Amino acid sequence: MKTSHKNQLIASAVLPSLLLSSAITFLASQPSAAASDGEYAAGVKDYSAKNFKGASEHFGKSIQGGNKSASVWLYSAHCFVAMGQYKRALQTYEIIAQSFKGTGEAATAAKSIDQLRTRLGMPPVAAAAAESAPTGGAPAVSTAAPGDEGLMARIEVISPKFGHQPVSAASIKAVKDAVAALPAPLRKKLDAIPDARITLSPNLVDRWPETAKEAPDESGVDLAALPGRIYGKDMSIYERAKVSGSTALKEARPPKHLRQTTLNMCFQLLDDNMVISKDPELRKEWEADKASISSPMSETLATFMKEDDWGPRETCSELFGFMLGGYNDMTENVLRCFPRSKKWLAAKMGIK
């Protein structure tokens, strides 16, 4: 999350002009299969005229229309930089670097990632495998009971701020039930990660009060509305979503939703350790499932159909939670549309 002071510094920096000047030179020399695409052509024209908002809209429509070229993604990323949407630009560069490896566009994206991270005050890519947590966090209280070991003994609760209600016993139980539901071999793997822990808060702002003063990030995402976030090996779960524009909170999420969030995050730590979602066999099943999904369901499941590594990872983490008793608004759709992925994952993870 970026502070307004940091954004002011970035806005006055020379980064946009440096990136864009090199991008124009690179892209202008690239033959593109998308040249016959009207939206793409219109985007290039607007981009050359420095009408970056118009160009961005054209490139977005080109992508939606089926243009899968690396150049349209790179143009889009540079437009985001020019418009000051640095977080969105960074995410797009990362997609290019992962999805178009070995291309000139990927090399340009990699350099742009390094420059953006430096200007944003973020660590280099090699040191940034995990999301950085906000600073100044509130102290947590352990929920460990006699006999709890490993991850179960590292479940902690944050006391409420801003007049919020404390985390309920039902929510704590939902998180503990999720950990207890893990198959023994997987639970053992998580227990063996010494810095893996779960922190349950009324909301993000209770754990990091200073974030209550901050607006949504450049991509428009309000982290205080999300069910949780992983910071390194710290699985931070929020019982309630924050009401936009205030410190008031909405109703507590149902226990099954909290169970799903917990299991989803546990899978992501396991995936980092076991390399599950990148397994070629899983990818084959996932691609087969994805190919059978048609519009408008493809729009509903867009998060799970991303071309980069996040598509399979999101699919697996959701399926993993559902198969172990979690539930959320996407449960029925994901289970119905990814049957081959579900079967493969159940066998891989030892879920009966």
Description:
- By secondary structure, the protein is mainly α.
- The protein has three domains: 4-127, Tetratricopeptide repeat domain (Serine Threonine Protein Phosphatase 5, Tetratricopeptide repeat), CATH 1.25.40; 140-272, no CATH class; 275-349, no CATH class.
- 52% of the residues lie in helices and 6% in strands.
- The protein contains 16 helices and five strands.
- It has helices at 4-11, 15-28, 38-48, 52-64, 70-82, 86-99, 104-119, 169-181, 184-191, 204-207, 255-274, 280-291, 297-300, 310-323, 331-337, 339-349, and strands at 140-142, 155-158, 197-201, 228-231, 234-238.
- Strands 1-2-3-5-4 form a five-stranded mixed sheet.
- It is globular.
Condensed summary:
The protein has 352 residues and is mostly helical. 52% of the residues lie in helices and 6% in strands. It has helices at 4-11, 15-28, 38-48, 52-64, 70-82, 86-99, 104-119, 169-181, 184-191, 204-207, 255-274, 280-291, 297-300, 310-323, 331-337, 339-349, and strands at residues 140-142, 155-158, 197-201, 228-231, 234-238.
Task: Summarize the SSE layout with pairings.
Elements: H1 4-11, H2 15-28, H3 38-48, H4 52-64, H5 70-82, H6 86-99, H7 104-119, E1 140-142, E2 155-158, H8 169-181, H9 184-191, E3 197-201, H10 204-207, E4 228-231, E5 234-238, H11 255-274, H12 280-291, H13 297-300, H14 310-323, H15 331-337, H16 339-349
Parallel strand pairs: 2-3, 3-5
Antiparallel strand pairs: 1-2, 4-5
Helix pairs in contact: 2-5, 2-7, 3-4, 4-5, 5-6, 6-7, 8-11, 11-14, 12-16, 14-16
